[in-house]
Amino acid sequence: MQDSSVEEILVDLPPSSKFIFHVLSREGSMTLKQITEETLLCSRTARYGLTQLEEEGLVEAAPALRDGRQTCYSVSRRSIGTTATGYPESVLVRPDGLYRQLEEFETDDPEFRLVEVSTGDEYDTGHIPGAVELDLKRDFSDAGTRTIPDANRLETLLGERGITPDSTVVLYSDGFNELAAFVYWALKYYRHRDVRLLNGGKHYWTENDYPTTTETPEVTPVEYEAQPPNDHVRAYRRDVQDALSEDVTIVDVRSPEEYCGDADVPARASGHIPRTVNIEWTSLVRECGRFEHRRALERPFAEVGIEEDDEIIVYCNIGERSALVWFALSELLEFPEVTNYDGSWTEWGNLLDVPVETCENDPEKSR
Fold this sequence. Notes:
Number of helices: 16
CATH class of the largest domain: Alpha Beta
Oligomer: single chain
Strand order of the largest sheet: 4-10-9-5-6
Mean pLDDT: 90
Structural class: alpha/beta
Number of strands: 15
Largest sheet: 5 strands, parallel
Strand content: 15-25%
C-alpha cells in the first residue's frame, strides 16, 4: 500500500486511531498497556482506536512473547511502507522487508543466505522458506559448553551452507533471538562483512502469519575463508580481571535471582562479578519479541549511569543472552567500546582464585 492510500484511510478514522497508528509507526510493536502509557489514552479509547485500525487492515495483532495472554500490536504489512524501525536495515531486518525479499533467499544464490539458528527440532517442524539450519548444540559446542568455533571449523560450517565472505547473511532464532545474536556476534568476531538479525525472530514471524515450510533448500557448498579474529568485540577472563581495577563498566545481563546468587547456575559458585551492574537482557525486547524503540532501549543503561563513550563488558552464563545485549549496545545504539565475555559465569563461577559477590555478602569478600 502506498503512503497516500494509508492517509486516505486514516482521514476517516477517529483521532485515537490516527494517534495510535503514528505511535506504532514510530515506536514499533506494543501491547495495549504500552500504548496507553505512551499515548496517555484510557484503555477503552485505545481499544476502540485499535479496533478501527484492525478492521481497516492497518494494524496486526499477535500473542506477546513473554505472556501469551497479552496481545502485541504492530502496523500491518499492508501499511508498512510508511513505517520505520529507527534502526539501520544493515544490521536489523524488518519482517516485512524479508518477506518482500524471500525469492532472493529461496534461490541457491550465495549472495543472500537466510539462517535459522536452533538447538533442537525447531527447524524441522517449520522454518522460513529458503532458510538453512545452524544447530548450536551440534555446531557451536565443545565439551558441552557453548563456544566460538575455531577458524577452520567456522569455514566448514559456513561453506557447507553456501555462505561466502561476501554473502548477506540474515540470522534468526526462536525465543528472544538470543541464539541468533550469539552467531551474529561470532561472525563479527571473524569479521564477516554483511550479517544481520531478523527483528522479532521466529516468534514474531510465525505469530504474524508469515510463511513457513518444512522443505529443506538445496544449497551448493562453497569455499569460505575466515578473516583474522577481531578481539575488539570479545572479552576474555584476563580482560575482566583487569577491568576490576580500571574504569570499565561490567554489565551482568542475567536475571536478578542469578545476579544475587539465589538461582541455580552452571558453576561452583553463585553470585556475580564485583563492581557489576545488573540489567536484565529481556528489558531490551518488547512483548512481541522485537527490540524496544531507541528511547526505551537507552533507558536501562542511562538509569545506571552508562554513557556512550564508556568501555563496557557484558556477560551472562554462556554468552548468548549477553550477545543480544552486545548487539543492542554495539549495533543498534552504536556504542563504540562494547565486548562480550562469552566465558561468562560458566567460566568465572568455576574459578578458584577470583572474587565473587552476592547481594548479601561483603563487597570486599572474595574466595
